[in-house]
Design a protein that fits this description.
With about 400 residues, this protein is α/β, with parallel strands linked by helices. It folds into 2 domains: about 5-170, 3-Layer(aba) Sandwich (Rossmann fold); about 180-380, Rossmann fold (3-Layer(aba) Sandwich). It has 15 helices and 17 strands. The radius of gyration is 23 Å and the shape is elongated. The N and C termini lie close together (about 10 Å).
């Protein structure tokens, strides 16, 4: 995987169209999580330090090609200014003369690219219009790289292009995890449904040495082995595909790990009465809601034997206690090994980031991707249009 970085192009005197992801959560006029905004600040500061003028291109929400005032990027302008420590000029209708007339040390924020249906259609006319606004293109939005849109893919073919600092960091981390990793490699894949992660599992068993399956997905694999799981969430119709994945893993020399003990309860409620049983001993009127301590001990041994960890999805119903125990315990083991420089740990996906923050170890992982769909498609082995265009 090769791409140009900011260090490969001269930016002095250039207007740099910079695609970012500032699709942040808001309550009223308040941004409730500034993570995505904070992460683009180094790229913006670096471009300005190198003599470039920054023009930010971004989407906000899903207006479906129409102007929706509640989805205007003007709403995030104050938060951008606070994070960057400089004035941000909001431009509703951009033009090259208007941009050229603004000071070089200002940051220019263009209105939501998705207010035009031409954006998501990757219309060449819109790509040409956007390209006319600048001299070079910087893509710093890995989380939008799985979409072939005018502002992520089309424009990259029309201007000299490079990856921003955040995109560069993301790509290097992913390359170190799956592209050219230190072996052995273990992948943890959790979540509710096998059906949503079939391509992911099929790709991973050919790339990693150990595959840990957790959450509701594990129940489907147990059912595939003829184990009854009571009232547990399980996709019984996916059992044949689960068996295929197990066979593919065996053929590829990938060891597949399922829970060796489970936490069961009659209700999915905080503080519900629960017990630890063998996977094949779930009572008919109860459900599996977490992996047990023996499973965590087994995973600890796997983590200690590996050099690289990729994590996507929880091991149990981590949203409420006590069913967050296995995910939290395993995450803390991985974090400790990472801090001891014994493990390269890369994690991604909304639930995963939430779970690692909940465990208090997010800052201890080698890299955490805030991208959801892009991270998942990368793990599935798919080509990301926004990256390929670089």
């Amino acid at each position: 995987m090769s791409w140009k970085s900011m260090d490969d192009l001269a930016l002095a005197g250039k207007t740099v169209l910079t695609r970012v992801d500032i699709n942040v959560p808001m309550e009223g006029d308040v941004v409730t999580d500034t993570t995505r905004i904070d992460k683009i600040c180094p790229t913006v500061a670096d471009i300005i330090a190198r003599g470039g003028k920054v023009v930010l291109l971004a989407h906000f929400g899903r207006p479906k090609g129409k102007v929706v005032p509640e989805m205007s990027l003007k709403r995030v302008q104050p938060t951008l200014e606070a994070a960057m420590g400089r004035k941000v000029v909001f431009v509703e209708r951009p033009s090259r003369p208007l941009i050229d007339g603004l000071p070089f040390d200002s940051v220019i924020l263009v209105e939501n690219t998705r207010f035009s249906a031409m954006e998501e259609a990757n219309d060449p006319a819109m790509a040409r219009f956007l390209a006319s606004l600048g001299d070079v293109f910087c893509n710093d939005a890995f989380s939008a790289a799985h979409r072939a849109h005018a502002s992520t893919e089309g424009i990259a073919h029309l201007l000299p292009s490079f990856a921003g600092r955040l995109m560069e960091e993301e790509l290097r981390a992913l390359e170190s995890a799956l592209g050219n990793p230190q072996r052995p490699v273990v992948a943890v894949v959790g979540g509710a449904k096998v059906s949503t992660k079939l391509e992911l599992l099929g790709n991973l068993v050919t790339k990693v040495d150990h595959l840990v399956i957790g959450g509701g997905m594990a129940n489907t694999f147990l059912v595939a082995q003829g184990i009854e799981v009571g009232k547990s969430l399980a996709e019984r119709d996916m059992a044949p595909l689960a068996l295929q994945i197990m066979a593919k893993a065996k053929a590829a020399g990938c060891t597949l790990h399922l829970p060796v003990d489970v936490v069961v309860a009659a209700a999915f409620q905080a503080g519900a009465d629960n017990s630890i049983v063998a996977p094949n001993a779930c009572p008919p009127d109860q459900m599996i809601l977490d992996a047990g301590p023996a499973t965590v001990a087994a995973l600890t041994a796997v983590f200690e034997s590996c050099k690289t960890l990729i994590w996507n999805g929880p091991l149990g119903a981590f949203e409420i206690a006590p069913f967050d125990a296995a995910t939290t315990a395993a995450a803390r083991v991985a974090a400790a090994l990472t801090k001891a420089h014994k493990l390269v740990s890369v994690a991604g996906g909304g639930d995963t980031v939430f779970a690692l923050n909940h465990a208090g170890v997010a800052s201890d992982f080698t890299f955490i991707s805030t991208a959801g769909g892009a991270f998942l498609e990368w793990m599935e082995g798919k080509v990301l249009p926004g990256v390929a265009a670089l």
